[in-house]
Amino acid sequence: MIVKIACEDNSPAKGLQQFFKQLLEMETIDALFLPVRLKASHSIMPSLVTDPERIADAVPLSPAFPINSARMVSRLSYKTSGRKTAVVLRPCEMRAFIELVKLKQGAKDELILIGMDCPKALTASDYTAYMKKDPLDDDAYIDAIFTKTSDTINGFDFSSACKTCDNPFPINTDISILLHGVDLSDGLMAESCSDMGSQVLERLKLPEATIPEKRDERMMQIKAAHSTANLSMIEQIGAKTDSIANLNTFFAQCINCYNCRNMCPVCYCKECVFNTDVFYHQPVQYHQWSEKKGLIKMPTDTVFYHLTRMAHMSHACVGCGQCSNACPSDINVFELFKSVAHTTQAAFDYQPGMNENNPPPLSVFHEREFEDIVGII
Amino acid sequence: MEKFEPVIIAFVCNWCTYTAADLAGTSRLAYPTNIRLIRVMCTGMIDPQYVIKAFLEGADGVLISGCHPGDCHYMNGNYKARRRIKLLQAILPKFGIERTRLRLTWIGASDGIEFAEVMTRLNDQIIEMGPSQTRKSQAI
């Protein structure tokens, strides 16, 4: 079912807050997980809210994307809490969470998954500058993205992850908030995508609505533009990193801080091999390497680390761009990993996070497959 | 010009290909000394990072060789290895490490002659391809 969310004072931001407040006041929902503006700093961070009054600070649609919340929802759900939580996630966060569910690092049992048309995001550093300069108010931002369909915001370009996103629309949700193609002056729309979602929406007793015809057209336009941007990005980054020597140049500023791994929602190992004794080499080992090669850069194993990470997680990469956000050396990790992910996901015909029933490609095998890669002629 | 002697790292499983190598040895069959065997219990235990490390350290070729489908001592290790090779063959060519430098074969325990032949052919093919780029540009 599809319902209309009326907007008080013609403000979609307030309309959404009202909607979420009603959800949190329901007896069956104990907590709400969504981005909230922190009073101390005006930064917007994902938060677990239990007091309905605190929803007044919630900002579910903004250009702030400090962390991929899939990691946080995993923390909230990997074991039972005895509480029902509604979580509001961007599409890339939802896809990452579905990957974590497949890996048993999160569970949907006690969650109500609420997705939305993606409000896009600025890079972390651009967002800081945008906040200092002249940020739009929440409604003006929503208007700029969904009604005026702006390509930039106050002179800031959206992150390359958002511009090349394969699927910036709600997927695998119980309830989806629809904005593209919807006349926002008349209110927002919510669609139930599961039985649980329908039960929730029915209780709210909101007026029914129908999906506007222009929504499909708008979605097709966005997909086409993103696909073009994606292919051109892959081509450019491919030319820059087509040899180990060029890869050395690309990662020249890497300091092996592993932030890209720590912020990656699908880098799921509890203990990463790069944190183990395997890479805590003996002093004599470094000397032997240096004696053999004349020079070794320290810390060592930089390119080795990135290539290993590609082999471990690129098939599950949802393209959220948090690896680039996390890089203190401003290396465009995202663009490289997305281009590798494009190839590895095609090799296994796998789309991460799109279908919960498709197992991760390296967790299964078939007796007869890939026979063309075997043998020496 | 000095003759190019490639370095080829071969990860071979204990139960099939290593046994075949043993048979080749006891049968006094020669195969190129450029190939350095690393015995592992099963091809299913070869983490992609072993292969990546070998290439970054200057290997000109890497071979993974195990039991024929259905013959794995651990039921399905070779099927897992096949998926991992598929994955690496998607990643490595993006960085100029040609797909054909990483090979996968099944050589059964009784195939000593086949083992020697395959190693010779592999060595010839890698010589034809020339040295790997990582010999010149060491990865940071």
Q: Order of strands across the widest beta sheet of chain A?
A: 1-9-8-5-4-2-3
What percentage of residues of chain A falls in helices of 4 or more residues?
25-40%
**N- and C-termini, Cα separation of chain A:** 59 Å
Strand content of chain B: 15-25%
Please identify the structural class of chain A as seen in this structure: alpha/beta
How many helices of chain B in DSSP terms?
4
Low-confidence segments of chain A = none
Number of domains of chain A: 2
Broad shape of chain A? globular
In short:
The complex is a heterodimer of chains A (377) and B (140). With 377 residues, chain A is of the alpha/beta class. Chain A has helices spanning 12-25, 70-77, 91-102, 124-133, 138-147, 160-163, 195-204, 214-240, 244-250, 259-262, 283-293, 302-313, 322-326, 333-347, and strands spanning 2-5, 31-37, 44-49, 85-89, 111-116, 152-153, 156-157, 175-178, 188-192.
What labels describe this entry?
heterodimer; A: 377 residues; alpha/beta; seven-stranded mixed beta sheet; two-stranded antiparallel sheet; 14 helices; 40% helix; globular; B: 140 residues; Rossmann fold; four-stranded parallel beta sheet; 4 helices; 4 strands
Structure description:
The complex is a heterodimer of chains A (377) and B (140). With 377 residues, chain A is of the alpha/beta class. Chain A folds into two domains: 2-215, no CATH class; 235-372, no CATH class. In chain A, 40% of the residues lie in helices and 11% in strands. Chain A contains 14 helices and nine strands. Chain A has helices spanning 12-25, 70-77, 91-102, 124-133, 138-147, 160-163, 195-204, 214-240, 244-250, 259-262, 283-293, 302-313, 322-326, 333-347; strands spanning 2-5, 31-37, 44-49, 85-89, 111-116, 152-153, 156-157, 175-178, 188-192. The longest helix of chain A has 27 residues, at 214-240. Chain B is of the alpha/beta class and 140 residues long. Chain B has one domain (8-135): Rossmann fold, CATH 3.40.50. Chain B is 37% helix and 16% strand. Chain B is built from four helices and four strands. A four-stranded parallel β-sheet of chain B has the order 2-1-3-4, sandwiched between helices. The longest helix of chain B has 18 residues, at 112-129. Chain B is globular and about 40 Å long. The two termini of chain B are 29 Å apart. The model of chain B has no long low-confidence stretch (mean pLDDT 95). The chains are: A alpha/beta (377), B alpha/beta (140). The A-B interface holds A 238, 241-245, 247-248, 251-252, 273, 293, 297, 302-304, 307-308, 310-312, 314-315, 339-340, 343-344, 346-348, 361-362, 365-370, 373-377 and B 48-49, 52-53, 56, 69-70, 76, 79-80, 82-91, 94-97, 103-106, 118, 121-122, 125, 133-134, 136-140.
